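Please, structure for the following, as tokens.
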Amino acid sequence: MSIFKDLPAAPIAPKRPVTDTRHGISRTDDYAWLRADNWQAMFKDPSILDPDIRAYLDAENVYMTAAMADTKDLQKQLFAEMKGRIKEDDSSVPVKDGPYAYGTLYVTGGEQPRYFREPRDGGERRLMLDGDKEAEGKSYFRLSGLDHSSDHSHGIWGYDDKGSEYFNLKVRNLQTGEDLDGVLENTGGGGVWAPDGKSFFYSALDENHRPSKVFHHIVGKPQSEDRLVYEEEDAGFFMGVGGSLLDDYIFIDIHDHETSEYRILSTKDLTAEPKIVAARETGIEYEITEGGEVFYILTSDDGAKDFKIMEAPAATPEKEHWREVVAHKPGTLILSHMAFARHLLWLERKDGLPRIVIRDRVSGEEHSIAFAEEAYSLGLQGAAEYDTDVIRFSYSSMTTPSQLYDYNMVTRERTLLKTQEVPSGHNPENYVTRRVFAPGWDGVEVPITLLYRRDTPLDGSAPCLLYGYGAYGMTIPAGFNTNCLSLADRGFVYAIAHIRGGKDKGFAWYEDGKMEKKTNTFKDFIAAADYLNQQKFTSYAKIIAEGGSAGGMLMGAIANMAPEKFAGIIAAVPFVDVLNTMLDDTLPLTPPEWPEWGNPIESREAYDHIASYSPFENVGEKPYPPILALGGLTDPRVTYWEPAKWVAKLRDKTTGGAPILLKTNMDAGHGGASGRFQRLEEIAFEYSFAIKVAGKM
């Protein structure tokens, strides 16, 4: 391709065929050797990676660097623009909890957050944890947060310094700022304090990176003496531990992508066995929140696919005691719920737009918080205290910077606390945000959120970055994103395709994009590209597609299905080796993922269906557009060998001359670089690829 000139020879991965036979079907994988046999140990110590694998990844990085060498100045410019839109010394609005208000701040030039507290009604701030100080000398460092005890004397803080998401936990004296002796290893990243502040509960990860156990830790005791509270023996379930606002209960949340189970432990007896709220039933989800003497249960039980809210006495929360409080309304998806002393509230989405609904727990009177823009995002933060009439929420749109409000649920008064500052300047009037609908292959309407400058010509000449995800019921919000302004300012149309597999249009929208209906996700994305081309927002020759993780699978699928409709493809940590991964039940996410994709080990039907679309399996002899794949060496979610194998096969099979690039971050995992500015450098790199491919350099 002419825009990629004078490239050195691309690395050629050796073929070392490995044959696997399932259900009487044999497949040969030429690149299976890129999967490290010792991946569990390597995630904790990357230095032990097989030298042949490291040499290949290094060679790919060298080739990628050469291919992108002419974008160095552009990357610097993009980074400067993005950084210029961030208030470097930003600070959150503190959240009141007891005698203090807690918050985070950044300092100019700082990469990591710093946690502080101050007297409840204002006063001198005291720094509790300095993320930049803790990160010194580490190529990767990510904080999982700081959770303070109910008596405000101590805090639990966690960190990952390899990108593998094995977090270490430490306990800090919040008065002195000193850490207590001892480190808890291989945890999920956080803990829940018992009311007396002398112990806490946390989840531990096993050797296959699964949160399989919950422990009770006594402060000052070694981890080896921690009491096992609960062990989940089914590898197909995720598990987490949380607590109630009143500190009355510890919640153990066990779930996969379609089934839930809660076990609760009263903090009046920390040595008791956790009590089941409702035993898991395949396909039934529920979440609980405390409301004093009752629990409120958000559930899909009895066919309530878009969820309803039930109530049960806290003393007898079993299913036979559930009573309906908020009825199921098909097409109106309840996303989350919270309860406070006098109010029940929930976040719901209808016709692709969110709103917050508030109900008086005594009178039953309801009202809602909504906004008038075509597309926007709401975030419900609630409050840290139970006995309150004031909650907090955030609002933004593609053109409107984020606004943080306190809201009085009795007086219905909104108090604007903070508007996101854009130091380099931002005039919303210069931009247009729209919600349009593309006709799908089967007659559905696929929502697309658009952002572009008001002076952008809509005659087919504008380049477009088309983003998609479409899995796990995740919805991509139409919120303010300062980074994509760099594309809009260069004449791009920035588009988000709200495709099936997400819950943008309710639970049915999710169901229509999973398991045997997975290909709807890919067809919807292609339909979005078709619509943008037909309506002259852009043209096929100008569309750069982007997606990450499960959205990276989307990128691999559309590359196979319709490569001629995309000028380029960016696939970040792409889940492209779907069949092989779903056949490997030792990998961290494989058993919990079977309800999303199917279990090809047990089911020939699932095997055949996954094999029909799995991007790696379906790479063919055709001209692929320029592709940029990005991976992380210690990524436990989408392992580094997925993009590596995919790129090797693409390069072997493509009949075109467009470059296939692989960038592996040798010091990070699924989320990429950990620092806020380091992350901007990665985005600048991805955008420079899009700009280069679009011919806008």
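The longest helix spans residues 676-693. The chain is about 20% helix and 30% strand.
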